[in-house]
Amino acid sequence: MPRRRIGFWYRFAAVICKPPLVVLIKRDWRGMEHIPAEGGFITVVNHNSHVDPFAYAHYQYNTGRVPRFLAKSGLFKKGLVGAAMRGTGQIPVYRESTDALSAFRAAIDAVERGECVAFYPEGTLTRDPDGWPMTGKTGAARVALQTRCPVIPVAQWGANELLPPYAKKPNLLPRKTHRVLAGPPVDLSRFYGKEMTPDVLKDATEVIMAAITRQLEEIRGEKAPETPYDPRRERIEQRRRTQAQAKTQAQAKAQAQAQAQDKQAEGQSK
Known about the structure:
This protein is of the alpha/beta class. The chain contains eight helices and seven strands; from the N terminus they run H-E-E-H-E-H-E-H-E-H-E-H-E-H-H. Helix content is 44%, strand content 14%. Helix 3 (79-87) links the parallel strand 3 and strand 4 (91-93).
């Protein structure tokens, strides 16, 4: 597959980043044949380590179709980092936008220009205790349904063993293996032509996340939970548990006070 649209800044970043990645992690990379040789497309990738964007970018770079990641717009304004972000064609996300689709206008434009845009649909590191993909956000589905471009599901595992989520120190030894498996395009045709309502976007996102999870099941050789971890649901449940605990403590305190008052009254009557 020929290299194309890489440019100076991406090659410069590769010179900086590839040597330590080659030293720190071994590679078991599969599914590159599913990366389109031409035209715009999206890759949707699970996220389980602060290292995996670099490790995944290495994989994608080697296909010749470099990824354009979505990143906070503020990063594009900071000196050398900003110059590198702009030079490598990364895509700023303006979170202050009130129009959810316009926040991804640059991503849509990139796909329509024939670029690859890489999405982390979870939006952050997975909170699932066992590292499985959790529920996704709808940004990738929005861009996919707007452009009708191929959506390539990609699962990765191993960078999280080098640097577990939220860990401060890497586990360098023994040397870890970064496993990547790209799959065939996700079939979203059932959603084409429909109004992009919250329900449609939610359903399309669930199809995308299920495809990523199947790829990760193959890498790990085990089944994922039937119901993906949902941070919003977990927050609600945690709030309910906290309220129930507070109610129980209040009842216990009231009961103890009542018992104390009964004893005091009994003592006075004697």
